[in-house]
Design brief:
The protein is α/β, with parallel strands linked by helices. 39% of the residues lie in helices and 13% in strands. Helix 2 crosses helix 12, helix 5 packs antiparallel against helix 6 and helix 7 packs parallel to helix 8. The protein is globular, with a radius of gyration of 24 Å.
């Protein structure tokens, strides 16, 4: 037995204690809803029995999605009651807590401020800091102590299918300054922020949820473009950094960044001096899961320098693999001790940052979103709108044609959403196009929309298009320029809205007649729909009916 292996084995704690220590490294996925039957994504969200068992066995973190703010508040209490240790309870709330949990503030995507930064940097920075305070305070009041934001990727590739409007900027300067302002505001409220996705996921046209992107950038390019926002976040005291499932041959020709010791230990720890928590992106994503089993992926990630293992494909298998790694001497116990110490120190620091932070009382949940929060949400929406043409639509009957990724996973379009109600009040019948559905397409590249399948009359086209996980594109592969030309040629286009991707708006806007009412919003939620459609001439009094102010 080698000296290293003998030393590692001899210093092991008892088997049961080793397993509990290893389990603390995992962050598993659960629904924000209380009941198993309410789970939206059963493939990833564990049942309550499994959650309860794993937390009792020492698992140290849970990432939540879905439900209301009130449910989230109760869910956190439930999870903490199942654990003997302080838990990391986190969520992907990059656009405010209301992005994932109804009843909290849902804010515009960060890229809206990235674009404002070019013309008014001071105002953009002030708004980004307020954005962070709003997100951090609401998260902490509802029981979250981890905010998996900000995105520090520089979205300099318009075809990026998954970062897109999630980024704080399309330039290194904007991304670094605004992401840092956000995290300073959020962490001041007593939550851990996580800069992601290291060393930079902005310049890829592949979605790591589906495949492993490979980038050819050399070290000089990375140092000039991708790394500075992360360096700024580290200098500002960001508590955690999340890895990217990317293959960067200039850094490691064998393994993706998440599993690469040269990237996580060599570059992030040693060269950039990051001393906080390193957390993997979800190991259940296909970039990793399709190539490595749950055991080996967890071991490789920890071996590379990760402290926390997010969403392994199989939590028990990941724990088994890590325990075997320590027992065999492949993994060093000293690294485990360091990771656990970083985790405990990060959680202990929360009360130091915000000593007065506390859970909102159950009876106070109705006041979670303050008037200041509501004013911020509206200010961000209004600032980011772009409109043109003469307001007003032709009298109905007409067609309100709405393009969505998936109507079954569409929290921004409830039955009473302004994008449905306001055109309906003007006599426009709603028809939905799903990105994956072939039915509206004719097969003719010059006239791709099968107009004979739609009702007659003027047509309002509303495109909800942005980068989203598992889509594989940001809508750029769909024939919308040809659709616009077809509708203009047939005299049917009455108006256009693009909600989400600025790149689609920039491609379509030059094709429009000067008088045609059209507009863009980076945000898709009901508040943005109401504001945009009101500017385009649908009755403003209707914008506040039926809860349209969201």
């Amino acid at each position: 037995m080698s000296t290293r292996r003998q030393h590692a084995v001899e210093s092991l704690p008892p088997a049961a204690e080793l397993r509990r220590q290893v389990a603390r490294l995992l962050v598993i996925r659960g629904s924000g809803h209380l009941a198993d039957r309410q789970r939206r994504y059963p493939r990833w969200e564990l049942e309550n029995d499994a959650l309860r068992r794993l937390l009792a066995e020492g698992v140290g973190g849970v990432i939540l999605l879905g439900g209301s703010a009130a449910e989230l508040r109760l869910r956190g209490e439930q999870l903490r009651s199942w654990s003997e240790h302080p838990l990391l309870i986190c969520a992907d709330v990059e656009e405010g807590v209301g992005q994932r949990f109804e009843g909290a503030s849902w804010l515009v995507p960060p890229l809206a401020l990235g674009r404002l930064h070019g013309s008014d940097p001071e105002r953009a920075l002030s708004l980004a800091r307020r954005y962070g305070h709003c997100t951090g305070r609401q998260a902490r009041q509802l029981g979250l102590n981890g905010v998996l934001a900000p995105v520090c990727d520089v979205n300099n590739n318009p075809e990026n299918p998954v970062i897109n409007v999630r980024a704080w900027g399309e330039t290194t300067a904007a991304a670094g300054a605004l992401a840092t302002a956000f995290l300073e505001g959020a962490q001041a409220e007593g939550v851990l922020c996580c800069a992601k996705h290291f060393p930079g996921h902005g310049d890829t046209s592949d979605d790591s949820h589906l495949e492993l992107p490979r980038l050819a950038h050399g070290r000089d390019r990375l140092e000039a473009i991708e790394l500075p926002p992360f360096q700024a976040a580290i200098a500002a005291g960001c508590a955690a950094v999340m890895t990217a499932h990317l293959q960067l041959d200039a850094l490691d020709p064998l393994l993706p960044a998440t599993l690469s010791r040269p990237v996580l230990t060599g570059l992030l720890r040693q060269e950039l001096g990051f001393a906080g928590l390193v957390i993997t992106d979800a190991l259940v994503m296909e970039a990793i899961a399709s190539r490595w089993g749950a055991e080996e992926a967890a071991v490789l990630a920890f071996e590379a320098g990760s402290d926390l293992i997010l969403m392994p494909a199989d939590a028990d298998a990941a724990i088994d693999g890590l325990v075997e790694g320590f027992q065999s001497g492949r993994l060093a116990m000293e690294q485990l001790r360091q990771s656990l110490q970083r985790r405990e120190e990060a959680l202990a620091a929360l009360d130091v940052r915000a000593p007065g932070a506390a859970l909102v009382p159950l009876e106070g949940l109705g006041e979670l979103e303050t008037p200041q929060d509501q004013a911020l949400a509206l200010e961000l929406v209004e600032l980011s709108l772009e409109t043109r043409g003469t307001p007003g639509l032709p009298a109905g009957p007409g067609v309100n044609l709405i393009r969505l990724d998936n109507s079954l996973a569409c929290p921004f379009l409830p039955a009473m959403a302004p994008a449905l109600r306001l055109p309906a009040a003007a006599g426009y019948q709603s028809c939905l196009i799903e990105a994956s559905a072939p039915s509206p397409w004719s097969g003719d590249p010059e006239a791709p929309l099968a107009l004979e399948r739609l009702p007659a009359g003027p047509l309002l086209l509303q495109l909800f298009v942005r980068g989203n996980p598992f889509r594989g594109s940001a809508g750029g592969d769909e024939p919308w320029p040809a659709v616009i030309r077809q509708l203009l040629r047939t005299g049917r286009l009455a108006g256009l809205t693009v909600l989400g991707s600025p790149y689609l708006w920039e491609a379509l806007e030059p094709l429009l007649p000067r008088s045609l009412p059209a507009g863009y919003s980076p945000a898709q939620m009901p508040l943005a729909q109401a504001a945009l459609l009101t500017r385009l001439g649908l009755a403003s009094s209707q914008a506040s009916e039926g809860g349209f102010t969201d």
